[in-house]
Amino acid sequence: MSGFLGKFKEASTTLVNKTTAAAAEIWDKHGDSIALKALQICYEMAKYGRQQITDNQKYQQHVIDRLWDLLPPPLRLFGRDRIGWDSKLFGLRDKIFLIDGENVKVRPDAKEQITATLKSVFGVHSDASLEANSGTNGRKCSSS
């Protein structure tokens, strides 16, 4: 039994390593473009004010879903639920937007935050010192 389990574990590790390497290669080719398009969406949404950002359903539709659709198909093959796409992007919300009353601004380091978070989602190692995995999972901006 341990022989089978050992081979299974080895095959799983090999698959994970190949998948991570493929994600890194795709990210190297398309990552900056994806981050810039994501930032553009954020600036667009900030113009519409607080309600578009703090309402979970609107944020889901206008930010999270649109960013998912921007990804190259090989990255979407990772599976939205499997990589925790929605929860990671809800967690990113407070790192991207500054909300003051009804006014919304995009944080100056938003592109770096987006890049770090997306790299972590796909298992691409980052040289940045930003902690993409910390966050509030959208609690600060939840609808009131």
General description of the model:
- By secondary structure, the chain is mostly helical.
- It has one domain (2-121).
- 65% of the residues lie in helices and 6% in strands.
- The chain has helices at residues 2-47, 50-54, 56-70, 73-76, 85-96, 110-121, and strands at residues 97-100, 103-106.
- The protein has a two-stranded antiparallel ribbon.
- Strand 1 and strand 2 (103-106) form a beta hairpin.
- The longest helix has 46 residues, at 2-47.
- It is elongated, with a radius of gyration of 17 Å.
- Mean pLDDT is 79; it is low at 127-144.
Side-by-side strand order of the widest sheet: 1-2
Order of helices and strands: HHHHHEEH
* Helical stretch tally: 6
> In angstroms, what separates the terminal alpha carbons?
55 Å
Specify the helix fraction band. 55-70%
Structural class: mainly alpha
Global mean pLDDT = 79
Number of strand elements: 2
What topology emerges from the helices and strands here?
Elements: H1 2-47, H2 50-54, H3 56-70, H4 73-76, H5 85-96, E1 97-100, E2 103-106, H6 110-121
Antiparallel strand pairs: 1-2
Helix pairs in contact: 1-3, 1-6, 3-5, 5-6
